[in-house]
Amino acid sequence: MSLVRKVLVVGAGGMGRRWADAVAGREDLVLAAWVDTARDVAEAAAAELSVARRLPPGGLLVEDDLERALDAASPDIVVDVTVPEAHLAVTLSCLERGIPVLGEKPMATAIDDARRLVEASERTGTLFAVSQSRRYNAELVALRRLVEEHLGHPELVSCWFYRAPHFGGFREDMPSPLVVDMAIHAFDVARWLLGSDPVAVYCDEHSPSWSWYKGAASATAVFEMSGGARFSYAGSWCAPGLETSWEGSWRVTSGAGTASWDGSSAPKAEIVTGRGPARVVGEPDRSMASGIDGALAEFVGALDGGPPPMGECHDNIKTLAMTLAAVESAATGTRVAVRWR
Ligand SMILES: NC(=O)c1ccc[n+]([C@@H]2O[C@H](COP(=O)([O-])OP(=O)(O)OC[C@H]3O[C@@H](n4cnc5c(N)ncnc54)[C@H](O)[C@@H]3O)[C@@H](O)[C@H]2O)c1
After folding, report:
1. Ordered strands of the 249-254 beta sheet
2. Ligand 1 close to Cβ of residue 38 (< 6 A)
3. Residue-wise pLDDT tens digits, 170-192
């Protein structure tokens, strides 16, 4: 008989609901407990999910206290989908008990806090990964394959992202909402496309006069990457009209040519080596698990002895370091070294 693991989800907001549904949709997992400090939020979410997924009555514990829920449910996995400020305390409690954690980005709100989590994962020998769910995208994987197979070593990567969502909630009140909550995905993707580490960043943040965010919702950043590549990012969360896709628009260039991706359709490349320019279109594997389903499948696979998840904490801390260094650069008006050790 195959192993069925018990999962505890912490956080029952918009994203917590999506995670609980992803857990409930797998036959090798059972949603055993759902915790939110706002108990009524967790109760309402649990009631909705129980109807939608026909969960057996009484099988899902709802709590507002994490420690009590951990004692009662003894989960095999915790998914931390709380607000970023709570990631340190929630994840640390679980790692100290030896319970593997799959957390939402960002890993933490300060690099020292992230280091504490990496240290706890090492010391307790407990898997901790951060779901950077936008990596699990068939078109993006096809772009990465085009880069590997045709471009060799790109040194120019650009992403531009322009959208105008009205979220309400924490994003409209937080400092640096674009960089911390959204550009972090693009920074993570750039690192993955290039297969290199961040070295330093210069970033400028800005609030257009019509912005509906308290913090700066537009930013331009240039990263130096190991090996000498440059990654440039330009984006805004208050840019109405002609919006880009949620994944942004990408361009990757080496001496052999350029690959591009609009963030939604199949990527393409023009290769200039050989007898003349050749057009290549990437072939997305649309059967792959995407988004948080992909992150969850990889995490469970790692617990079953498979390779470490892409967001394993020793690697994902570099994405957080890029984000925090960009914020520091914007605040100080200086080029900032990206450090995670
Ligand atoms: N990968 C993505 O594409 C993506 C998209 C949206 C959100 N997120 C991330 O998911 C996380 C949650 O975002 P959201 O949009 O669901 O936020 P949200 O504000 O809708 O929900 C967060 C919930 O966490 C609860 N909470 C706060 N502190 C807690 C604690 N200590 N213990 C238990 N519960 C606690 C709150 O009461 C709230 O219900 C954030 O880290 C966010 O960055 C990722």
Report:
1. 278-281, 268-271, 257-261, 249-254, 156-162, 230-236, 218-225, 198-206, 336-337
2. yes
3. 889 999 999 999 999 999 999 99
